[in-house]
Amino acid sequence: MLDGLDRGLLQALQIDGRVAFSLVGEVLGVSDQTIARRYARLRAEAGVRVLGAVRPQAVGRQVWVVRVRCVPEAAVGLARALARQPETSWVQIASGGSELVCMVQAQADAPAEESALLARLPRTPRVTDVSAHCVLHTFFGGTTSPLTKNGPVTSDQQARLRPPATKPVASPVELTAEDHALLKALALDGRAGFRSLASATGWSQTSVRRRLAELRVGGVVYFDVDFDPAVFGLRTSAALWLSIAPGDLAAAGEALAAHPQVSFAAVTTGASNLYASVQCSGSTALYEYLTGPVAALPGVRSVETAPSMRVFKQASPIVG
After folding, report:
1. What CA–CA distance (Å, rounded) separates 10 from 38?
2. In a structure prediction context, what are the per-residue pLDDT tens digits for the chain, which is 320 residues long?
């Protein structure tokens, strides 16, 4: 379990994954050496990683939430195969082992069936059904996570840690081969030093520093903290598929995004129109959440719950 300083450090890294440890220490009232030691311990003992990620819309990509139903004995092999695909993230087995849920990035201006991965899945042996749900609007997720709203860092402290504001992406950005090399290196370690990034790209450290700043301010790159919810005592995860009355959809999504249990919430296409990923301390807490805050959402018509059994891949697909 984590103490207050650990939680403050993780929240600071979610605000800015490349923030200087000297500034984190100054904000949290400890030395930068203490922050560096805590981060090293969290990496070694809790599997915490800072990962660079690309905003899909910035590079002409569309996000799909994909449900794959299969015979239970094929689930593990299929999940591992999906996790190896560069365009997938959040690959997990759910619903008692007969279903996989994952995120897939595909070209935004092409139908889902033209995605090589999405087209291949229905023809995969032992797969019984595939449904792909296009993410139309995200209420919570991406640059934000449960660390953002559940940590001890005050609003004034957050303002000191926050990186420069990003510009809206007007049209997809054309990335060079060197950009892709930079993004691939950051997807493996978002806090990689400029010397390491220069080696990966063939640029000078000065060029890497300048280009990374451009990609961040231009709204292309952001940083996320990958962590196991169990270190926060959250041992039960589930996907929620909610059907909301259209007139209440925006209000329900905004309310859902504020729940401390929610790590992702978005409007999707399909039979249900609001999807969420949630973490609770246990099955009793999940029941109380479903019958309390979820039941109180405006316009709820139905809720389908798919408990997660095993996660094979978390954040940061590498799309290139």
Report:
1. 10
2. 789 999 999 999 999 999 999 999 999 999 999 999 999 999 999 889 999 999 999 999 999 999 999 999 999 999 999 999 988 999 999 988 889 999 999 988 776 666 788 888 989 999 999 999 999 999 999 889 999 888 899 999 999 999 999 988 888 999 999 999 999 999 999 999 999 999 999 999 999 999 999 999 999 999 999 988 888 899 999 999 999 999 999 999 999 999 999 999 999 999 999 999 999 999 999 999 999 999 999 999 999 999 999 999 987 665 54
Q: Can you tell me the distance from the alpha carbon of 298 to that of 283, in angstroms, rounded to the nearest whole number?
A: 24
298 part of a folded domain = yes
CA angle 223, 147, 92 (to 5 degrees): 75
Tell me the CATH number at 241.
3.30.70.920
Tokens representing 295 are 């039941």
In degrees rounded to 5, what are phi and psi of residue 163?
-75, 170
Confirm whether 74 is domain-assigned. Answer: no
Return d(Cα 272, Cα 316) in angstroms, integer: 26
